[in-house]
Amino acid sequence: MSATGTARPAEALSGFADVADYVALLKPRVMSLVVFTALVGLVRAHGGIHPVIGFAALLSIAIGAGAAGSLNMWWDADIDARMARTAQRPIPAGRIESGEALAFGVVLAVASVAMLGLFAGWLAAGLLAFTIFFYAVLYTMGLKRWTAQNIVIGGAAGAFPPMIGWAAATGTIGLESVLLFLIIFFWTPPHFWALALLRKKEYARAGIPMLPVVAGEDETRRQILIYSVVVAVVGVAPALFGFAGLIYGTLASMLGVLFLALAIAVWRKRRGVAAQSAARRLFAFSVLYLFLLFAVLLVEGMR
Amino acid sequence: MAAKQKRKGIVLSAEQRRRRRARSIALALVLAGFAILFYAVTIVKLGPQALSHPT
Questions:
Q1: Which of A141, A169, A208, A224 could form a disulfide with A47 if both were Cys (CB 3.0 to 4.6 A apart)?
Q2: Residue of B5, B19, B44 with shortest CB distance to A16
């Protein structure tokens, strides 16, 4: 027997992942958005939280978001393998084993909730636990493959972080933190449906019942328009309730009108290249919209 | 001779060894980071009392 015969070729082993693969499991781009919105909630609460505790709380929230991302990738590996955009993720590409991603996600989820509870209180920790459960179990395992309303209800998971930040700083749930929740909640459907209009075929092939696939593009355009009206109004609400200042109120009004104008363009342009570029413009602007609103809230909150 | 060869077990490629080393270093840094974080949080939360014995 030759030496190569007794030594198993290591190439045959899966699970030989690089550090970058574990980072990818945490969905760092989603995580950065979670940290940013949680920071806004934390700062605006004016709870007199010590900077070190604030940092530790944000880190816990970030780890919780990463845990949810890892569990999502564990469950969705079969879909990811079928879509060009996601086929190179660590699990479908075979660099990390499915069970390893599950263990990674569960350990980080438990650790993040325990840490946040010890650092900043159990209301915030409870909200974080609920958010992870909502995203990983309710959305990923249930809604996503079952109903066209998947992202409407699932959007709540993305909307919780500012409330968690607020609860970490104050130990309470304030009206303002609920408004921050509502902004992200109503922003999510038009944001994802604009993307779904562009990626309809991919979603259909992967068997995900996104609204354009199930109800058609025209119905999607109508729903985008309805939610955009709500976003434009809710976006101004922090100023109307007297939480945010004049600068925020003015900017939110202007950006809200622009959001609505782009949604109307999506609604009117239904065919060909014009329809594609209208959806692309709304998608790109929606990201900027949310970022600018929260950035101004953050700056106003730091004064 | 055969027993000697069996003990060789799994032979990692240079790339796999590099990746394992990178993972080990990353894990060490993360653990060190957490040790510092928990120390800092303890000091902030308890202040000088962190050093006093319960009576």
A1: A169
A2: B19
Helix then strand then coil, % of chain B, to nearest 5: 80, 0, 20
* Alpha-carbon distance values, B9 to A2, A10, B3 (Å): 13, 10, 11
Q: Does A225 share its domain with A235?
A: yes
Of B2, B23, B41, the CB nearest to A53: B41
| pLDDT for residue A258 is more than 70 | yes
What is the b/e burial string over B25-35, where b = at least 16 CB atoms within 10 angstroms of the residue's CB? eeeeeeeeeee
Question: Given A8, A18, A52, which is nearest B10 (Cβ)?
Answer: A8
Together in a domain, A37 and A116: yes
Hey, is the C-beta of A173 within 8 angstroms of any chain B C-beta? no
User: How does pLDDT run across A72-98, given as a tens digit for each residue?
Assistant: 999 999 999 988 888 999 999 999 999
Average pLDDT over all residues of chain A: 92
- Distance from the A205 Cα atom to the nearest Cα atom in chain B, whole angstroms: 35
Number of domains composing chain A: 2
Range of A93's domain? Answer: 18-172
Residue A225 and residue A274 share a domain: yes
In which element (H, E) is residue A95 found?
none
Q: What is the pLDDT of residues A110-129, one digit of tens each?
A: 999 999 999 999 999 999 99
Would an 8 Å CB–CB cutoff place A1 in contact with chain B?
Answer: yes
Is the residue at A9 inside a domain? no
A chain contacts of residue B17, beta-carbon cutoff 8 Å? none
- Once rounded to an integer, what is the mean pLDDT over residues A180-207? 94
